Amino acid sequence: MIKIEDLHKSFDGLKVLQGVSFQVAKGEILALIGRSGYGKSVLLKHISGLIRPDRGHIFIDGSDICHLKGKKLEEIRSRFGFLFQSGALFDSLTVFENIAFPLKEKTDLSDREIREKVLAMLGQVGLIEAENKYPAQISGGMMKRAALARALVRNPEIMLFDEPTTGLDPIIGQAILNLLDSCHKRIGFTGILVTHEIPKVFEIVQKVALLHEGRILTVGSPEEMISSKDPIVQQFITGNIEGPIQYY
Question: Which residues in 32-51 are b (16+ Cβ under 10 Å) and which e?
């Protein structure tokens, strides 16, 4: 479903992506791990068509989006859901209105059909009682659940998650990962999950890719990553990382 080939990107002469290549099969979730500031979020923005690479290819279900523009690119992007690190809810809209927004903007559903879909999603993420509250009136965990509901309400084929548990305490963070897992089992989307929740995330993904110094150092199953003899992989998994971090 997703195939990345030799992707390169620089900003003001600073090389961020230096030949990234990997692929994600239909229905899989891949955890994209790596040190902060090494381009994981930049890579997600390339995959969603928000940024164009300096060179390389991004194939979505066989179509190279690097060469698509306008309506054709929008057709591909309409198959995506994106959960931003901040949640990116609209402050002036209620939880219900936030989740309904993509349905009103991108579909021809009636108001009744939209309400039915939104209420169903609110039930699935445990936010029925918060439908009329504004983002400022709910907790960080509830905001992440509302953002997830908005991303999933159109049943996307592909989901991109940018550190969905950032800023949450361990218990709420685990609850969000459990919710992602249940939604994946229900919808069957193909996903890429940028995260630092190691090894917790290994319980809900089928594949793991380690981005290191602008390239994918290794790709494998969670079991293969845990048993890897590569010292860089082991340092990252165990949290024993030394040295300066580059920020992009």
Answer: bbbbeebbbbbbbbbbbbee
12, part of any domain? yes
As beta bridge partners, residue 55 has 8
Distances (CA, A) of 36 to 78, 84, 97, 213, 242: 29, 16, 33, 11, 13
Question: For position 208, which CATH number holds?
Answer: 3.40.50.300
Q: Which amino acid is at 230?
A: D
For residue 177, give the nearest of 26, 19, 29, 13 by alpha carbon.
Answer: 29
d(CA 188, CA 181): 10
Is residue 60 situated within a structural domain?
A: yes
Q: For the segment 120-179, what is each residue's pLDDT rounded down to a tens digit?
A: 999 988 899 999 999 999 998 899 889 999 999 998 999 999 998 888 888 888 888 998
Q: Please name the amino acid found at residue 64.
A: D
**Residue 197 belongs to some domain of the structure:** yes
Q: What angle do CA 96, 141, 133 make, to 5 degrees?
A: 30
Give yes or no for a contact between 121 and 152, defined as CB atoms under 8 angstroms apart.
yes
Q: pLDDT at residue 218 above 70?
A: yes
What are the backbone angles phi and psi of residue 158, rounded to the nearest 5°? Answer: -130, 135
Query: What is the average per-residue pLDDT within 74-96?
Result: 89
- Check: CB of residue 78 under 8 Å from CB of residue 103: no
